[in-house]
Amino acid sequence: MIIDTHTHLEQFCRKEILDEILESAKAAGISRLVTVGTDLDDWSLYRDLAGMNPGLIDYTVGVHPCSVEEGWSTAVDQIATFFEGEGKAVALGEIGLDRFHLPKDEEGARILFDQQKAAFEMQLAIAKRLDCPVVIHSRGAFEESVAAIDESGVDWSKVVFHCFSEGPSEMQQLLERGGYGSFTGVITFKNAESVREAARLQGIDRLMIETDAPYLAPMPHRGKRNEPAFLRHTAEFCADLFGMSLEAFSEVVGETSKRFYGLK
């Protein structure tokens, strides 16, 4: 049974096809999904989905770097409330830094990146106080992201860099600190040998996999809308990469995922 440790169910809900998506996922052997918050707009939706689907859907809350805009601190101030009482979030995220989507003008890019860093630091401080798992989004900003986490004092054993698309040298930095990398369908792409090297370096005992749906569909669906059911392709590819059966691979990776997110 395979766990999708990072997906975004909001679009499927808005299109009123979530039931269909979940049934397809179950049929493909996906036993559990962690739907990941990106802004205040989806947090309550995900809490409700988790409440209606116990044991199938869990959720996280966080302000994605691409959601950092005027008024972002108002959303950040509400994060801790989702870790109280029944139906708590299982992690804080996804949070981090993203250079890819910055404005083209240098001054505008600098201002926005500074805002991203401020939001990241504030959310890391909350994560440290809550002592909860943290889901990191890092695109074009790996070194700055690592430095911010180091500075925050967050327990690195609770940190996962989702959609790990770097190489073995970056993975080595995570391993030295006790952090994790989680892999999407990118690992199945022909031009992603460095990503595969990073996965081998991390090793099967620390591996987690995800779809990041509706983005980054694995082979043979690359370029199409991704969905949780497609995680089976990534799982099969990774099982072969590690010379394991799908069943043995899923058991090891599933236990790591449950342990990291504290899934019952």
How would you explain this protein's 3D organization?
- By secondary structure, the chain is of the alpha/beta class.
- Helix content is 44%, strand content 15%.
- The chain has ten helices and eight strands.
- It has helices spanning 10-14, 18-27, 40-52, 72-76, 106-130, 142-152, 168-177, 193-202, 231-241, 246-261, and strands at residues 2-7, 30-35, 57-61, 91-98, 134-139, 159-161, 180-183, 208-209.
- An eight-stranded parallel sheet has the order 1-2-3-4-5-6-7-8, with helices on both faces.
- Helix 7 (168-177) packs parallel to helix 8 (193-202) and helix 9 (231-241) packs across helix 10.
- The mean pLDDT is 96.
Key structural traits:
264 residues, alpha/beta, 8-stranded parallel β-sheet, 44% helix, 15% strand
Summarize this, please?
The chain is α/β, with parallel strands linked by helices and about 260 residues long. It has ten helices and eight strands.
List the helices and strands and how they pair.
Blueprint: E1 2-7, H1 10-14, H2 18-27, E2 30-35, H3 40-52, E3 57-61, H4 72-76, E4 91-98, H5 106-130, E5 134-139, H6 142-152, E6 159-161, H7 168-177, E7 180-183, H8 193-202, E8 208-209, H9 231-241, H10 246-261
Parallel strand pairs: 1-2, 2-3, 3-4, 4-5, 5-6, 6-7, 7-8
